[in-house]
Amino acid sequence: MNRAARFLARLDRAELGGLLTLAAFVLAVSFVPLAVSFAVTPEDIESGRVQLSPPCPYKASHGRECASCGLTRGFSAMSHGRIADARRYNAGAPWLYLGFWLLAGASATSAAVVVRRLAALGNTRGSALTPTSAGS
């Protein structure tokens, strides 16, 4: 039994439910920007047809782009297979994009493992998502 399996074996249903909630939240936070980046193109963002974020206040006041300027267009470019364009929009966009995919994958895997553990508990001690009635 590996370390993760031993850790999960010690948790009760409530703790597993908390882990599942956390994994689902992290999955949503990481996957939603990725899904949106497939739905729009960098040209949609540049032309103003689609506005996903407010204008950068730093750029408005200083006339220069901040460290996060171009990330939305960069994510969109990456989702459309345009890596060179993504790097031109923001040099960190490809790396952050990769990080979001890794985070989405890890949280989806974690959620699946927790659901399997909850199902195993449910098969031995009643319903997986409802507490057992001790002493009834």
Structure in words:
The chain is mainly alpha-helical. It has one domain (12-124). 70% of the residues lie in helices and 0% in strands. The chain has helices spanning 3-9, 13-39, 42-47, 57-62, 71-79, 83-89, 93-125. α2 packs antiparallel against α7 and α5 runs antiparallel to α6. It is elongated and about 60 Å long. The protein starts with a helix and ends in an 11-residue tail after the last helix.
Task: Note the topology.
Layout: H1 3-9, H2 13-39, H3 42-47, H4 57-62, H5 71-79, H6 83-89, H7 93-125
Total beta-strand segments: 0
Secondary structure class reads mainly alpha
Uncertain segments: none
What's the end-to-end separation, in Å?
34 Å
The number of distinct structural domains comes to: 1
Number of helices: 7
| Helical residue percent band | 55-70%
* Structural shape: elongated
Largest sheet: none
Taken in chain order, the helices and strands follow as HHHHHHH
Q: Could you report the average pLDDT, rounded to the nearest whole number?
A: 88
**Strand portion:** under 5%
Radius of gyration: 21 Å
Features:
mainly alpha, 7 helices, 70% helix, 136 residues
What's a concise summary of this model?
With 136 residues, the protein is an all-alpha fold. The chain contains seven helices and no strands.
